[in-house]
What does this fold into?
Amino acid sequence: MSEVVVVGSANVDHRLVVADFPAPGQTVKAVEFDTGPGGKGANQAVAAARAGAKTQMIASIGADLAGQSLRQVLSQAGVDITKVQVSPGVPTGAAYVMVNGAGENSIIVAAGANGDLSAADLATLSPGDYVLLQLEIPLELVEEAIFKAHSRQAKVVVNVSPVDDRTRPFLGLIDVLLVNELELGQVAELIGLSAAEADVAVTARAVAKKLGNTVACTLGAKGALLVTGDELLAVDAPRVTAVDTTGAGDTFAGYLVAGLAAGDPIPDVLARAVAAGAIAVTKPGAINAVPLAAEVDRMLAKG
Ligand code: RIB
It folds into this structure.
């Protein structure tokens, strides 16, 4: 089975649950506050491992309690952490996650040690392996990892989040571009398409055509779609009650890439990733909300 290597961020998430997001200048009281493991890279690595993929993570954490705890969480989830580096004198990355009454989130990330990740050792990649990246680490490293992965005939999946103008030159080198609806519009604008008047399927088709890659777009409670060439596959999400959408896209990403790496049929891969993301929104937190494969099986069996 092909391996999944996640090159990305690991954060401690400070979660503040509020009735409504504060307006600029407004102070609101949190109804709940906690901290937990997160970071788009770590969330996706745990999801890929829980989905059954042989998963390795390349990341940078601080020499602090948050970093130690992240290593433990990743390792317990079955992620190979031998290439998780410790950056002395820099705190582990942190995210400040506001969650409102509808389970929606608003996130600010502080890179911390993620900004120190300066090398991605991808020498052990084999043809057919998958490299999964996001944009919470230095962009030069993302670009370098894409070239290294291709030189070893591995596939590259990039969750273009948070969207950054400087990614434009290498968007066409990505095999599978992973975005949510908002990010899809941002990418469309970045590559000179007018996203504003088109619906999401039209935009996804246009982006996939212009970049010559596969586009996977999560649609929240509406599921997800995947466009390759002229083919568009859409999967509805199971109905669930959302308590916290944080990390649901990452859960989708990890399950999607694990399914691709296993060579499973694409409709099954997409359905499984959507179901996993749907379960994640029913639980608070990021990594703590990533479902085990058995939970996803049960959700799919319910139909
Ligand atoms: O995608 C959710 C993640 O974004 C959170 O876990 C937070 O750490 C930020 O990276």
